[in-house]
Amino acid sequence: MIVRILFSLVAILLLAPFAGAQGLAEALQDCPGIVVVSNSASQQIHLQMTDDPTEMSVIWATGGRSMNQIVEYQRGPDLLEVNAESYCYGNHNMAFHMATMTGLPLGEEIEYRVGTQNAQMSEFYTFTTIDPSENHFEWISIADHGDSSEALDVSEAIIADESAQMVTVSGDIAYADGEQSAWDSWFQEQQASMTQIPWVTAVGNHENEPGYEFAPYEHRFDSDQQIETETFWYSRNVPGVHMTFMSTEHDYSVGSTQFSWLEQDLSSVNRDVTPFVIVYGHKPMYSSNSYHGSEVELRTALEELYVAQGVDLVIAGHDHFYERTWPVSGETVMDTGKDNLFYRGQGPIHLVIGMAGRSAYEELDEPQPEWSAYRENNSYGWTRLVYDGNDSQLSLTHYRIDGTIGDQFTITDSTVIGDSEDANILGLTGIDSLLMVIVLLGAVVRKR
Ligand SMILES: [Fe+2]
Ligand SMILES: [Fe+2]
Fold first, then answer.
1. How far is the centre of ligand 2, averaged over its atoms, from the C-alpha of 167 (Å)?
2. Does this model's pTM top 0.90?
């Protein structure tokens, strides 16, 4: 009896700091498989972008319910510490920790590390805060990733890319499908990138896992810094671009909470600040792959809104191939551009980029639909996007894992081009300025 009482007292003392955040009874119930340890090496360390550019959250895992987890970071002359909130989910035997660095200067390098206070800290990592007022931004977008050898090639390319400032994933991220150690190794594989740049995600059908539903996704990523809940639709602003992340895995029908949020989010974009709008979601409205094909229900509910709100790009996955549509509305091609250059506002261009690692779906609908501009069904790779504020252009390049380019196009904001690029030729644009030069040259020759 005395031994049991002593054991209980020791357990209470050991758990007390953790219990402060969660309540002892809850903590004991919530994490049945986790052993309490005094410290444990941090792993799966990843940045998590909040909606405030002066903040950055970081999430990491430990193999035990380790106490006193903190993030330590340098802000100007100050070395600061923030206590993490610790949590777990289901019966998975790892603890997760989340802390948010605040008051960060924009566009500057921040050094940080995580771990057990005064004991086992990680090495130092560095990231650069995103300054939304910059006029240049580069990032990588992928979907349908997993851990195949092709997926690892994509991961390596991302890690090697020193100019990319962010990665987006349009769902079907780790393909854990109920096997939680698959998530652990996926995060470990991406850690070299995820400690330096934020990965921002839209949820896919493979994040809805047998026995867990969305809980692993909700606890491992965090769009709202609310442990135990997840906002499945949210937006982020980066230089020149408003990015909307939506869920094709939750109700999006007209009148739904998500639909109302999308209406409000897309209609409140300040195009003077972010001229381009991209919607990221998992299932595609347009796909000519025979495996899944176009998600017609999604198109019926949301296409009109996207067209009305001048969405420039919709970046999806789900079908494991690459496809780009022309600017399109209701299956009607609105524009075919010129040499892969498009003026914005003609209609959204839809992309399926589900070729980051999962087995390719090779069978395509024939003939190729008119709205389909380019498709590729037997390669793996990623897309890389660049916003160039000087020319007010948004460019996308589709890279294969062998380093070759599959597709490339640019969207330009015509009003800005008229205002800036050609303003030195009497404010005329394109062919008009060329004609003006010929007329002026003719006048000079005649005068001689
Ligand atoms: Fe997939
Ligand atoms: Fe999928």
1. 18
2. no
